Amino acid sequence: MKGLKENIAKHIVILCERYPALESVKEEIVEAYFLLAESYKNGGKLLVAGNGGSAADAEHIVGELMKGFKLPRKPDADFAGKLVKENKELGTVLAENLQGALPAIALDGHPALSTAYMNDCEPLLCFAQQVNGYGKEGDVFLGISTSGNSKNVLYAATTAHAKGMKVIGLTGAKSSKLEQMSDVCIKVPQTETYMIQELHLPVYHCLCLMLEDEFFGD
């Protein structure tokens, strides 16, 4: 795993020990990690989208990135001091409880916007519209699709590339349109929907652990 620091690489080792089938996609996981880490280092963010169970996975990923996963992520001393200076009573509570975040947005979680757009415009472009609104050059779009052919995810990926973003696909083993348009595609080695989803979770947990160690580890 060339280029990975030891504390980051250990998560891939543990992943493959626990899920030997994922040995086949470890290089793609590393490539996805580098794309995400580079984006975050440059002030970027992650936009995530999927349907059904993959929408739940999108929300799950955001939850792991936007707050502490395994590490406490205490605010740095400078920011903590600014919070207390702003308001001693409220700032003290904030300084003790806020956690460092890696900016991430799940695109399924805005029902008023999505339903308004689907009612007024083209329903399959609901994710693409949000990529258009939130996305900027240097951000990353993660499309989760067990088939790799979910049209609303494909429209979003197309929009992401047009905005200068990188695209990561998370799919099953079959070749797909999302694979073709992704900068990196992690194709877990299953073809049945629920079995694909069962392998998606350890993959994105691993990525979240790697990113947390990169930005909040010792």
TrEMBL record:
Documented EC number(s): 5.3.1.28
SUPFAM superfamilies: SIS domain
Catalytic EC class: isomerase
Entry keyword DNA-binding: no
CDD domains, sorted: SIS_GmhA (cd05006)
One Pfam family from the record: SIS_2
Superkingdom of origin: Bacteria
InterPro entries to which the protein is assigned, alphabetical: GmhA/DiaA, SIS_dom, SIS_dom_sf, SIS_GmhA/DiaA_subfam
Stretches assigned to the SIS domain: 36-217
GO MF assignments: carbohydrate derivative binding; isomerase activity
GO terms, biological process: carbohydrate derivative metabolic process
First and last residue of the signal peptide: none
Keyword terms, alphabetized: Isomerase
This protein's name: Phosphoheptose isomerase
Species for this entry: Blautia luti
